[in-house]
Design brief:
2 domains; 17 strands; five-stranded parallel β-sheet; about 325 residues; alpha/beta; FAD/NAD(P)-binding domain; five-stranded antiparallel β-sheet
């Protein structure tokens, strides 16, 4: 039996490991040249495999599920975690009450997104699960119980196909099956302050920061994430920031740097000429479906006997699949 998964986000990689307990002929098709989805890493000047998105391991439903999910990350994927200090700010989570939020102690992964993808990739390779990059699924034809899959390279039959929430296909196939999506462009800015000796205030992650109108998320990439004795600041541009980016990206980088600097050191510094930074912008285009479009996709997958995977949030995926994930072998074998 041939099993196909579309996309290589951490959730889809975990899904492949769950499926391997029952099936052995499994292929992961990734349309990009590297794996990881929105968790992929990039280079920042001389630093390799740097996390360029503002990620966090946020709780999904309650502190019990969060703790169990962290155990999966540690025991099943072999990740080392550290507690976020200070605690992330302004997190919006409709699933958790204020009482539940008070019980949460936030953690993140040493090595960040790069370590998550590397460990999952190692597990995939151990199981001899195939990952085929630069392979975009264009359309699927349904012939009896078989699925004829067309990629940009070849076509083949599959018995089961697992799709992520935000999967993409050929334009005509999307229209024909009424499963359209939206394209969302995210722009992140990484900043390194040169010769910055004094920092009064620290932060780990802030959602909707009030210190800058140009960004809607900010995180500090500490030595725990970079595994080097340095700190980078990662911000995601707001809609206003995107408009300014199209006008003058260098000027915008300096504006945001001043906002971050003022927040860290609590003073009103305004001179863009004197600021000493290294910076780099990273652009991402991702697929997105709102609730209405997701309903149509679910209807399509049910009708065609396809399998839909909730990849909206990494920790949500883990929380929803705890029982299956607990059956996986530990990443590191315990010594006798």
């Amino acid at each position: 039996m041939k099993i196909i998964l579309l996309g290589s986000s951490p959730a889809m990689l975990l899904q492949a490991l769950i499926l391997y307990q029952k099936y052995k002929n499994i292929e992961i098709h990734e349309s990009k040249k590297s794996i990881g989805g929105s968790w992929k890493t990039s280079n920042f000047f001389d630093l390799k495999n740097v996390e360029t998105g503002t990620h966090i391991l946020a709780p999904w439903k309650n502190h019990h599920i969060y703790k169990e999910s962290l155990k999966i990350l540690k025991n099943k994927i072999g990740l080392n975690l550290y507690s976020l200090d200070p605690t992330p700010k302004k997190l919006s989570n409709k699933n958790l009450t204020k009482k539940e939020l008070k019980k949460i102690k936030y953690y993140y992964v040493k090595g960040g997104a790069n370590k998550i993808i590397k460990n999952l990739s190692d597990l995939i390779k151990r199981k001899k699960i195939k990952i085929i990059t630069n392979s975009a699924i264009k359309k699927i034809k349904f012939i009896n119980k078989k699925k004829l899959v067309y990629t940009n390279k070849k076509f083949f039959f599959a018995d089961k196909i697992f799709l992520p929430y935000y999967c993409n296909f050929d334009k005509d196939f999307l229209i024909e099956n009424d499963i359209n999506f939206e394209k969302k462009k995210s722009i992140h800015l990484l900043i390194k302050f040169l010769n910055l000796k004094k920092i009064k205030k620290k932060f780990s992650y802030i959602q909707h920061p009030i210190f800058s109108k140009w960004v809607d998320r900010s995180s500090a990439l500490s030595k725990h994430i970079l595994l080097k004795n340095t700190v980078l600041f990662c911000t995601r541009l707001s809609n206003k920031g995107k408009r300014e980016y199209n006008k003058n990206s260098t000027k915008l980088a300096k504006f945001i740097s001043i906002d971050v600097l003022n927040y860290l050191n609590e003073y009103n510094f305004t001179n863009t000429q004197k600021i000493n930074i290294k910076f780099k912008f990273y652009e991402y285009e991702t697929s997105y479906r709102d609730n209405e479009k997701l309903k149509k996709l679910k209807k399509f997958t049910n009708r065609r006997n396809l399998n839909l995977v909730d990849t909206s949030e990494f920790m949500k995926y883990i929380g929803k699949n705890l029982s299956d994930l607990k059956k996986l072998k530990n990443y590191v074998k315990k010594s006798r």
